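Work Package 4 report. The design task specified in the project plan requires that, given a folded chain encoded as structure tokens, an amino acid be chosen for each position. We show below one input record used in the internal validation round.
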């Protein structure tokens, strides 16, 4: 297996970064642009592989999309403008693409099939296909609809009331996207508040919805109107540099244009709780709340992360685990079983790869326990094809005593194609 040597023992990180567009919002801006009537212009679009897959899938459904770098223009013709694809829709590595598209395709009266890569082939889909079947769609897939390939013949939907069995924005979004095409009202009740980008998008595109605590109601048959979307920077990408700045000595980094939607800012709350020297400046609205975040080298202490906090930082847990190795005392992460069904089983891969670097960390049924503060040594580690594990290990190497080599570095392009350029620009 080919490995790539990573930077070691960084003396300091200094400078500023313009954080690339949010992945969740980039996907949704293409999808809503496609199902709305009229033109949608998107700026600061994320050019990671996952979002490019979403564009490719909608082009196969007949939607005209122009994309050049971070600007994309979608020429939507409403839900009825989507056509039966003559080819299979391949979502690559992207869980968000397949789960949200299933919600859209569930309402379309034509046949479509969806596949993805090896990792997608192991991720559970009945959490989405089951409620879509109760709305009235015909959907089937391998192992009783649990895995790809999945085939859909949609149309003829009627609204339902559905209590989510897991805290998942992807499941919530799939049901709302199907609900927009159903007869009558669709109600989704969440277990914990998850990212609300879909709810905000529906309203931004001129649709109506009611949110009351954990209950969301949407009426079917509403027309959506194309609009402009300026995508905020992705806090999940910024997270790698927030942690790098906190753990590398003599560091000060300004991360500009970071999305600060409260359903996503768990990492900021947890880092502050752990004692991080973190400031938020220049808060403003740019489609969603955004601001600039300044992080300096910090003296950190362990904490417990659990319950409703988990969905607010679910994708940041790998990098928070690294942060905890550099904090005094014990950090406990609980209620995070969902990590087992991401691009990899992120409980296992985080624990195994950080152990290879010399960390004291153990897995539990629903999370992990990390003992700090630990000098990391270095070694040969792997992303296991998981972008967030790859970036976490690249940040870990900055505080390792010896050389670290990373297998399968390519995975990082899924969500942060410029990651290494950005890192190099801070290494002075
Ligand atoms: O809706 C979204 O854009 C996402 C929701 C989360 O997944 P789940 O809904 O499976 O928790 C998250 O992990 C993923 O990176 C993006
Ligand atoms: C889980 C992730 O994405 P997805 O579910 O879209 O593959 C992620 O980006 O960490």
């Amino acid at each position: 297996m080919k490995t790539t040597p990573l930077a070691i023992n960084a003396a300091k990180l200094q400078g500023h970064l313009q954080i690339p567009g949010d992945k969740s919002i980039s996907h949704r801006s293409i999808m809503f642009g496609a199902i709305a009537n009229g033109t949608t212009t998107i700026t600061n679009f994320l050019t990671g592989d996952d979002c490019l897959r979403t564009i490719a899938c909608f082009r196969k459904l007949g939607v005209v999309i122009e994309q050049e770098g971070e600007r994309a223009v979608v020429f939507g013709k409403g839900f009825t403008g989507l056509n039966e694809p003559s080819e299979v829709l391949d979502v690559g590595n992207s869980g968000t693409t397949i789960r949200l598209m299933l919600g859209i395709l569930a309402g379309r009266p034509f046949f479509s099939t969806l596949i993805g890569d090896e990792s997608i082939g192991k991720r559970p889909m009945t959490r989405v296909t089951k409620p879509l079947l109760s709305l009235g769609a015909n959907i089937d897939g391998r192992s009783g609809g649990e895995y790809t390939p999945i085939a859909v013949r949609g149309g003829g939907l009627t609204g339902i009331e559905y209590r989510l069995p897991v805290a998942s924005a992807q499941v919530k979004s799939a049901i709302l996207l199907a609900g927009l095409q159903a007869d009558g009202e669709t109600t989704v009740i969440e277990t914990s508040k998850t990212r609300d980008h879909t709810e905000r998008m529906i309203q931004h595109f001129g649709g109506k919805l009611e949110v009351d605590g954990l209950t969301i109601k949407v009426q079917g048959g509403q027309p959506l109107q194309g609009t402009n979307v300026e995508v905020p920077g992705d806090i999940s990408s910024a997270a790698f540099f927030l942690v790098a700045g906190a753990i590398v000595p003599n560091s000060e980094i300004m991360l500009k244009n970071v999305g600060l939607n409260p359903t996503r800012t768990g990492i900021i709350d947890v880092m502050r709780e752990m004692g991080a020297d973190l400031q938020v400046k220049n808060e403003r609205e740019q489609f969603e709340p955004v601001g600039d975040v300044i992080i300096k080298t910090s003296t950190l202490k362990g904490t417990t992360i659990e319950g409703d906090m988990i969905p607010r930082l679910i994708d940041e847990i790998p990098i928070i685990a690294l942060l905890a190795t550099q904090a005094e005392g014990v950090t406990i992460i609980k209620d995070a079983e969902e990590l087992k069904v991401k691009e990899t089983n992120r409980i296992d891969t985080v624990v195994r790869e950080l152990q290879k670097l010399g960390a004291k960390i153990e897995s539990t049924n629903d999370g992990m326990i990390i003992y700090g503060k630990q000098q990391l040594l270095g070694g040969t580690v792997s992303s296991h094809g998981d972008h967030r594990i790859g970036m976490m290990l690249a940040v870990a190497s900055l505080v390792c005593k010896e050389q670290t080599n990373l297998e399968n570095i390519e995975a990082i392009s899924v969500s942060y194609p410029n990651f290494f350029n950005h890192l190099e620009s801070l290494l002075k």
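The chain has two domains: 3-21+233-426, 23-221. Validation will be extended to a larger panel in the next phase.
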